[in-house]
Amino acid sequence: MAQVGQQAKSAPFKVYTQRDLDRIEQLSRLSPEARFEMRVVSSVLPFRVNQYVIDELIDWKHVPEDPIFQLTFPQRGMLAPAHYDRVAALLRGGADKDEIARAVDEIRQELNPHPADQMEMNMPRDEEGHRLDGIQHKYRETVLFFPSQGQTCHSYCTFCFRWAQFVGDKELRIASSEAAVLHNYLRTHPEVTDVLFTGGDPMVMKTAHLKSYIEPLLAPEFDHIRTLRIGTKALTFWPQRFVSAEDADKLINLFEAVVESGKQLAIMAHYNHWKELDTEVAQAAIRRVRGTGAMIRAQGPLIAHINDDPAVWARLWQKEVELGIVPYYMFVERDTGARNYFEVPLVRAWEIYREAMQSVSGLARTARGPSMSASPGKVEIQGVTEVAGEKVIALRFIQGRNPDWVQRPFFAKYDDQATWLDHLRPAFGEEKWFWEDEYATIREDKLAN
Ligand SMILES: *Cc1c(COP(=O)(O)O)cnc(C)c1O
Ligand code: SF4
């Protein structure tokens, strides 16, 4: 028995990309057209999946509807018909590499590769005005750091809003390998209390790399940093990382050292569906991480074809609470990449949120949302209501470029088709949002720099 356990423990990490589509055994049961469609779509959007996801998370009897299949495998509808036809024609006609690359490049540029002005507005500069690559600082308290070794993931989500970072275009990549840049920045910004390591997925890094970023932050000069957060989907895509990977024990020791230093360690786990929480190894990983004193919080977008169903969210939140995870955010799918395939109207998103909330106990009602991470801030849909005879959508900022905007209710004209903030118009015949002029000023300032 021990040996069986040992074997299961040491199953190697095996990953497939576009070139390897034909080597995925389970795909052979799909039609040749379906496989060709995958090849077309994955020429434009990143594709990467590992053996654990294929064998343990996807229910192949229910493909293509299976939510984890939709989460990881390219589908024809993810490209606009014109884009699809263009790439399909090139592949069928045996076009040369360069020609395909040019077409793919043009299509990617049309997919809003950097939504919410991330490149222009969130990147801080040092005293000499040099842009600090790999850092984003949008909200006063929290700095995001993109370690350069963590800019990939154990599998890719088809709907990922950071997809542009995975397609190998250097200019599009936000990354820094320099821990010193991060540490210098934090030293001179005492207002920052939280650092969020993100990517890609920082958990693809070797523990030694992660340690070089994290350990120095435990020194007294960084006492203002109260919380270290790690954004990850490894608890879904490769829970072995925390349990049986070569340096899993070192990782656990590092987590323990953070907690012992008196800081909060928050694992911001990305979950979309309760199926991700069902395997034994996923649950073992959660137990092990929690055993260090780290807190696991769960967040993820609401996505058509994957989880646009109140019953799925209710079961997800309930399961999270059962496993000691705190539901934190329900996001709205962003306006980038394959958004046309995945988006859910804001009003429908709120209905799903509300119905799911109504069917779980109070401990599972801690997720905020549905929330849009737009350029001015995180905007939550609070609900549909009627004010002075007008049907409206009530909104509020959960986070704002100006902290003063946070928690002020504001109203949009009712619109059951809108899927993003820029589709909404102010209610009551008003010309502008209360924050609009101020946001325009902030934006001009940032873009001028
Ligand atoms: C969501 C987010 C944060 C963290 O916000 P919290 O509400 O504190 O979780 C920080 N920076 C950016 C850019 C974000 O999108
Ligand atoms: S794990 Fe996160 S960063 Fe990686 S592909 Fe999924 S959504 Fe994108």
UniProtKB/TrEMBL annotation:
Keyword terms, alphabetized: 4Fe-4S, Iron, Iron-sulfur, Metal-binding, Pyridoxal phosphate, S-adenosyl-L-methionine
Which PANTHER family does the record associate with it?
Answer: L-LYSINE 2,3-AMINOMUTASE AQ_1632-RELATED (PTHR30538:SF0), LYSINE 2,3-AMINOMUTASE-RELATED (PTHR30538)
Which GO molecular function terms does the record list? 4 iron, 4 sulfur cluster binding; catalytic activity; metal ion binding
From which domain of life does this come? Bacteria
Cofactor dependence is on: pyridoxal 5'-phosphate; [4Fe-4S] cluster
Q: Which organism is this protein's natural source?
A: Pseudothauera rhizosphaerae
**Protein name per UniProt:** Lysine 2,3-aminomutase
- What family does the Swiss-Prot or TrEMBL record give for this protein? Belongs to the radical SAM superfamily. KamA family.
Q: What is the lineage of its organism?
A: Bacteria, Pseudomonadati, Pseudomonadota, Betaproteobacteria, Rhodocyclales
